[in-house]
Amino acid sequence: MAKDIYIGEILSNEEIQKEYFLMKVKLASSFDDPLPGQFVMIRIAGLNDPFLSRPISIYSFSRGKNSCAIELLYRVVGKGTQILAGLIKSSQVEIHGPLGGSFEIPESKEQIIFIAGGIGIAPLSLLAEYLGRNVCLSKESMSFYLGAQTADAIVGLDKLQKLCYHIHVCTDDGSVGCKGLVTEAFQKDMKKFSAGDTMIYTCGPKAMVRSLSKILSGSKFHCQVSLEERMACGTGACVGCAVAVRDKQGNLGYKRVCADGPVFDIRQIVWE
């Protein structure tokens, strides 16, 4: 089903950490409630340069009486995001979405584990918020492992502390939290969790997710991953974000991250 393109008004667009911005956009009330894991394609309203359309995960969503608002957490990494970072309050943007599939919501899991690297915190924060509000999971049942290169790259911690009781922060240089990789911190704690009663959700750099996939190999933990890939259209038309996967029979194929994902079972992904 095709999604409409909305004209949104920027309510705020602030740098919350060096190179990390949080944008809040007001939208018409007809915008669908996004599901955890979905994203939007965003570009400056009226600008015809197709390269300025960028996929950004939905970080938060709220609905008012006559409108709604989404929050987008993003990092400045190139031309498009640099231009987005320069937009001021009341600027207009085109929002296409919500797009993509969502995380599978567990029906009978006692423990939820989130493992995020860098900007991967965005979709997992929306998911934690959703689970607490709609599935009535307690803060005590949700553990969050958050990793980044340095303290400057840790974002969204204030929100996490309201959602999850157990938060483990790791940085490569040890400037905040434990020194080391976030996947190593989780691996040390694996024995604390029962695979049958636990759901793992992850999002982050490819190297992090690949490492987690190896750690979980041979275990019975169920893990869903939201993949971070460059997207040109966001709807599957260009096939520019295809990733290699294997089906349950072991057959190799390709899936489009934007249209078939961005959420997959981590065991589907072919890393080599």
Keywords:
272 residues; Elongation Factor Tu (Ef-tu), domain 3; Rossmann fold; Dihydroorotate dehydrogenase B (pyrk subunit), domain 3; globular
Q: What would you report as the Rg, rounded to the nearest angstrom?
A: 18 Å
Fourth-level CATH superfamily of the largest domain: Nucleotide-binding domain of ferredoxin-NADP reductase (FNR) module
- Biggest β-sheet: strands ordered side by side in the sheet: 10-9-8-7-11-12-15
Structural class estimated from helices and strands: alpha/beta
What is the subunit arrangement here?
single chain
Domain count: the total is: 3
Reported CATH architecture of the largest domain: 3-Layer(aba) Sandwich
Helix content: 10-25%
Beta-strand share of residues: 35-45%
Low confidence ranges: none
User: Mind describing the biggest β-sheet?
Assistant: 7 strands, mixed
What's the total count of β strands? 15
Which term fits the overall shape?
globular
CATH class of the largest domain: Alpha Beta
State the CATH topology of the largest domain. Answer: Rossmann fold
Output mean pLDDT: 88
Annotation field: number of helices: 6
Series of H and E elements: EEEEEHEEHEHEEHEHEEEHE
Could you give the distance between the termini?
33 Å
